[in-house]
Amino acid sequence: MTTSIVSEPETAPADKNFLPGPVLLLGAPGVGKGTQAKALMAAYGIPQISTGDILRANIKSGTELGNAAKALVDQGTLVSDDLVNQMVADRLKQPDTQRGFILDGFPRTINQATWLDAQLSAASNTLPVVAISIVVEYQQLLRRITGRRISPAGRDYNIYSKPPRVAGICDVDGSTLIQRPDDSEAVFVERMKTFEAQTAPVIEHYRKQGRFEVVNGDRPVEEVTVGIVSALKRLRNDSNQ
């Protein structure tokens, strides 16, 4: 089933009085999800909740959940949904989540999505999750990822969209640019397969509930932000009716 991309007005400025609630940003590798998450964080003063960050913080702090997770990680075993859910539940109790938050890397499975829905519905004055998927055409994503080149100092280039003046050479210090192993086409193909397999059921879960919308990510960053803000406001208005 294909979801049409909804057009947005040219401007959709963030409103400090608007309550964003929990937002799940979805997107394949290279769509710019991290950049858009930062824009929403700045616009609404809400945190980004990353399960990877939560996991590392718990392990570093030596919490009970962190120690349990570390034992699994050390064994090369995946951390269970139940353990991840408990960590997320603890994070959602912190006061900075009251107006909303941006979910990163969670929920990845239907079990996690249904757990999260139940967790939020049980809390007083908490809005349900809305899911927004940033979509970019496959070949464009491939060029974004495989075209990346980086200097030893961390300067970024792209041989297709932001090439250096001299091929393979940093404009600033003349150093040799490299392609990271993770930016190869073979790795990208596998990451896309994993993304699609994990995300499809979660998308369908929120689509069926009328809490899902697609935004065209193949535009300048600011225009994509406008689209996300517009989609978020539409979804919130619909869910409150």
TrEMBL record:
Q: What class of enzyme is it?
A: transferase
Q: Which domain of life is it from?
A: Bacteria
State the EC number(s): 2.7.4.3
Keywords on record: Kinase, Transferase
Q: What is this protein called?
A: Adenylate kinase
Q: Which organism is it from?
A: Tunturiibacter gelidiferens
